[in-house]
Structure formats: structure tokens, C-alpha cells
Design brief:
The chain is an alpha/beta fold and 309 residues long. It has two domains: 78 residues, Winged helix-like DNA-binding domain superfamily/Winged helix DNA-binding domain (Arc Repressor Mutant, subunit A, Orthogonal Bundle); 220 residues, D-Maltodextrin-Binding Protein, domain 2 (3-Layer(aba) Sandwich), CATH 3.40.190. 45% of the residues lie in helices and 24% in strands. The strands form three sheets. Strands 3, 4, 5, 6, 7, 10, 11, 12 and 13 form a nine-stranded mixed β-sheet that branches. Strands 1-2 form a two-stranded antiparallel ribbon. Strands 8-9 form a two-stranded parallel ribbon. The longest helix has 25 residues.
Length: 309
């Protein structure tokens, strides 16, 4: 198996046909077809379904595509690590952010990268935490912001902030009438709209409730932050989230963010890297900058409900 075969296969999948991939790669289509056939023969499986409309991955092809992408990224990172200067790091770095963190961290980080390291191309991907952990483990991303749930032992983790979760509701909701806080029991007694268990915030809510002898019930599950906010504004219920994803709505008076007590709910936000895949100079520089930007946001009060740890 050769690296060029992996590049050819990924290009065919990305462009949806052998002919388009051949044009992009500047390779004759018969040669591309031959390399694909040799790859399938070596693996002993069919990777693609071919038709007049193009190509589609088989189940085996879907698995192989993810591994091929990861291998090609690690090769590119290895090449970059050899030529990069520690003083002027350059190259591409991919950072994964959970949906509930990106509003607080993404734009300040992009601004800081452009100012500090103009030769680094930062690629941000926004995913659920379970998907980010899987991508980091496979080497498809360089860094990921995750939540310390006690199961991050396979990663090198640097604590960033401790983030408070609050009860978020429409400004005219009865729970918000004349109150700045409420108990966790009262919060759980309302109709809650929460992300699914694959999101980092939900397991934290469930574990805190169990420890207090409480439980969620009748939860409406919505995994999109945008749709979740629309549902709150439509009066369908409230949620328990950090303030960052709804800060704009709170500031314009459309929503309220009430503190939760007896007990409070918080989560530790950490920056994770692989223990097995070395960081390039560029990725190491981004890693340091993520920590600095997070701490600066806390110090300036711009990351509401978060404190440096």
C-alpha cells in the first residue's frame, strides 16, 4: 500500500467520481482506476460502488476513508514538523470545539492567531464532544477542547476554566419572575430542553442530579444550539447550559440566566492532545495560545460564568 493510493482514494471520494478526481490530481483516469483496483485487491474488499452517476463508499470504504484521512494528515504534520521554525511556526492546525464552547472561544482565538501567528492556518471544527474525542484519538484533528468527565486518561489534558451552568429561560418565564437563582430541584421540575447524552453538558447535569438524589424527567432533547434557543424563545421550556451560547439573547433581554444552587453545577473545560501523536511546532503554539486566550477572557469578564483553573 502506497501513500499515493491513499491520496487517490480520498480524492475520488471527495470529488464523487473518478473523472473529476483524475482532473484535480492531474492523473490519467485509467491509471487512477488501476491504482484503486490494486488497493482493493490488497485489502480484499470493495471500497467503492461505481455507477454512471459517480462513486459511493461501501461500508468498508467508509471505514477506510476515515483512516486514510488520518494517515495523510499525520504525514503532512510530520513533514511540517521537520521544516517549521519554533520562532515562526507555520502550517495548518485543526482544533475541535464543542458547540457550547465555540461562542465564547472561537472568535477571540481566531483573532489572536492572526495577530500572533499569521503564518498558521487555524481550522476550527465544531462537533459534539464524543465525536471530537474520537477524531482526536484517530489523529484527524490536532487539538480538542473537551470536558473533564474522569475519562480523558488517553489524552494529555490541560485545564482551561471552570464553567458554571445556569438555568436559561425566556425572560417572561414564571421561573424568572423576581428571582436571580433557583435550586436544582426547582430547575429539574420545569420542562427542560437539553442536548443528548453524547454532548458534554448533559452527562454533567445527570451526574450532579443523581448525586443530589434527583433526576431529570420529561426532557425534550435537541442537539442543535440554534434550534434549542428557538425552542426556548417559543416558550417550549428552559435549559441548563453555560451562558456563552445564549449571551446575545441574555444581553438584549430576551432570555434570563439564573444561578443554580443546592447544589450548583459546573464543569471543567480542558484542552486535550493525543499522547501518541507528537504536536507540530504550529500545533504546540496554538495549544499555548488557547490556554492564554481562555485565561484572558476570564480575567476580563468576557467568558461569563467561567473562572481560571
Amino acid at each position: 500500500m502506497e501513500l499515493r493510493q491513499l491520496r487517490y482514494f480520498v480524492a475520488i471520494v471527495d470529488h464523487g467520481s473518478l473523472s473529476r478526481a483524475a482532473l484535480v490530481l492531474h492523473v490519467a483516469q485509467p491509471a487512477l482506476t488501476q491504482q484503486l483496483r490494486q488497493l482493493e485487491e490488497e485489502l480484499g474488499v470493495q471500497l467503492l460502488h461505481r455507477s454512471a452517476q459517480g462513486v459511493l463508499n461501501t461500508d468498508a470504504g467508509k471505514v477506510f476513508y476515515e483512516h486514510a484521512q488520518a494517515i495523510l494528515k499525520q504525514v503532512a504534520d510530520a513533514q511540517a514538523a521537520v521544516v517549521q521554525s519554533a520562532e515562526r511556526p507555520s502550517g495548518s492546525v485543526t482544533l475541535g470545539l464543542p458547540h457550547s464552547i465555540s461562542d465564547a472561544l472561537a472568535l477571540p482565538l481566531l483573532t489572536a492567531i492572526r495577530q500572533r501567528y499569521p503564518e498558521i492556518t487555524l481550522q476550527l471544527t465544531e462537533e459534539i464532544t464524543g465525536s471530537l474525542a474520537e477524531q482526536l484519538r484517530a489523529g484527524r484533528i490536532n487539538l480538542a477542547v473537551l470536558f473533564d468527565d474522569g475519562q480523558l486518561g488517553s489524552f494529555a489534558a490541560t485545564p482551561l476554566v471552570e464553567e458554571e451552568l445556569r438555568f436559561i429561560c425566556r425572560a417572561d418565564a414564571p421561573a424568572a419572575d423576581g428571582h436571580d437563582s433557583l435550586t436544582l430541584r426547582d430547575a429539574l421540575d420545569t420542562t427542560l430542553i437539553l442536548p443528548g447524552l453524547q454532548h458534554g453538558v448533559r452527562p454533567r447535569i445527570e451526574s450532579t442530579a443523581r448525586a443530589a438524589g434527583l433526576a431529570t424527567h420529561g426532557v425534550i432533547e435537541i442537539n442543535s444550539i440554534a434550534i434549542l434557543k428557538s425552542a426556548i424563545l417559543a416558550g417550549m421550556g428552559a435549559t441548563i447550559l453555560p451562558v456563552a451560547p445564549v449571551q446575545a439573547e441574555v444581553e438584549r433581554g430576551a432570555m434570563r440566566a439564573l444561578a443554580i444552587h443546592d447544589p450548583a453545577i459546573a464543569r471543567t473545560v480542558v484542552l486535550c492532545t493525543s499522547r501518541n501523536i507528537p504536536l507540530t511546532n504550529a500545533a504546540a503554539a496554538v495549544s499555548r495560545l488557547v490556554v492564554q486566550v481562555a485565561h484572558d477572557l476570564c480575567a476580563a469578564g468576557h467568558w461569563i460564568g467561567a473562572r481560571k483553573v
